[in-house]
Amino acid sequence: MATELKQYLRPGVALPFCPGCGHRILLRLILKAIDELEINIDDMLFVSGIGCAGWIPSPHFNADTLHTLHGRAIAFATGAKMFNPKLKTMVISGDGDLVDIGGNHLLHAARRNIDLTVICANNMNYGQTGGQVCSTTPKGAVTQTTHGGSPYRPFDLCKLVNAAGAAYVARYLVSQGSVLVNSIKKALQIEGFCFIEAISPCPTQFGRQNRLDTPRETFKFVERMCITKEDAEGLSPAELEGKIVTGEFSNGRS
Amino acid sequence: MVWKKMKSMLPAGSYYFSGAEAIAEGAIAAGCGYYAGYPITPTTETLERISVRFRDVGSVFMQMEDEIASICSCIGASWAGAKAMTVTSGPGFSLMQEGIGYAVMTETPLVVVNAQRAGPSTGQISVSSGDIMQARWGSHGGIPTIALSPWSVQELYDQSINAFNLAEKYRVPVLIMAEAATAHLRERVNIPEEVELFDREKKPGAAPFGTEEDDGVPPMPSFGEGEKLLVTGSTHDAYGVRKTADPAIQGKLTARLYNKIMNRKEEIIEYEGYYLEDADIAVVCYGFTARSALFAVERLREEGIRVGMLRLNTLWPFADAIVRDVGSEVKKILVPEMNMGQIVGEVMKYAAGEVIPYNQMNGQVIYPNTIIEQLRRLL
Question: Where in chain B is CATH 3.40.50.920?
Answer without folding.
Answer: 272-378
